[in-house]
Amino acid sequence: MVNKKELALESTTLWDFPTQNYGDTPHGNNKYNGVTSAFVIWNLLKRYTKDNDLVVDPMCGSGTTIDVAKELKRRVIGYDINVVRPDVIKNDARRIPLNNDSVDFVFIDSPYSDNISYSNDIRCIGKISCEKQEFFDELEKVAKEIHRILKPNKAVGWLIGDQWKKKKFIPTGFLLYQRLEKYFETIDTICVTRRNQTSNTDIWHNRAIQFNFYLRGFKYLFIMSKK
Ligand SMILES: C[S@@+](CC[C@H](N)C(=O)[O-])C[C@H]1O[C@@H](n2cnc3c(N)ncnc32)[C@H](O)[C@@H]1O
């Protein structure tokens, strides 16, 4: 019988399974603001890495990438400016302390505006609104670093959402994608469906009709390789 994990590798739709429901051991901490679904990372590592490859997450938060990578027997380094566990290295993603061409895969789930408070560190890119050009300039610095540390032809998976706030839509995903295209070739773009949608309630459905907006039930996953 095909199990849930194998099914997800066959399918073209990537579901954001709640972290708690995947695997036997914990991955990251679902109490961490903006925690990533372990299943998304598992899918990427199964497809784009092999045993002993070096995986890096420059904004690893509660360490979901570290846990998934270790479980899959990949080597892993997780950085963040907000350190919540001892195996996360404090570092600003705009300057990664690794050699050129030294990494096999990068996963990153970056802030997509100033909607979540991650920490008090002023270097947090999540303090800048995606309504400002500066937000994309700073993410481009991170993209450049990822490009520098990746081995030739190796891939990055970048997860990001859009913003609809105060009757104004910002296509954050597309705006980031334009920056990423300068450094990377596109392998695939995936919509990751959010299963744990807090907006999937009557109140939000009614608001969406009243104020004419769509409920955002997905994030983009850009999978790209180093040019
Ligand atoms: C969406 S969260 C990542 C969640 C993580 N993947 C997890 O599963 O817990 C975004 C992270 O970016 C980090 N961050 C923001 N600006 C940063 C910077 N300049 N350098 C490093 N990390 C940064 C935040 O502290 C936050 O942990």
Question: Could you characterize the architecture of this molecule?
Answer:
By secondary structure, the protein is α/β, with parallel strands linked by helices. It has one domain (4-226): 3-Layer(aba) Sandwich (Rossmann fold), CATH 3.40.50.150. It has six helices and ten strands, in the order αβαβαβββαβββαβαβ. The protein has helices spanning 4-10, 38-48, 64-71, 133-149, 172-180, 202-211; strands at residues 14-16, 54-57, 75-80, 88-90, 103-109, 150-160, 163-165, 168-170, 184-194, 218-226. Strand 7 and strand 8 form a beta hairpin. Helix 2 packs across helix 3 and helix 4 (133-149) crosses helix 5. The N and C termini lie far apart (39 Å). S-adenosylmethionine is lined by residues 28, 32, 34-36, 58-62, 64, 80-82, 92-94, 109-111, 118-119, 123-126.
Can you lay out the helices and strands and say which pair or pack?
Blueprint: H1 4-10, E1 14-16, H2 38-48, E2 54-57, H3 64-71, E3 75-80, E4 88-90, E5 103-109, H4 133-149, E6 150-160, E7 163-165, E8 168-170, H5 172-180, E9 184-194, H6 202-211, E10 218-226
Parallel strand pairs: 1-9, 2-3, 2-5, 3-4, 5-6
Antiparallel strand pairs: 6-10, 7-8, 9-10
Helix pairs in contact: 2-3, 4-5
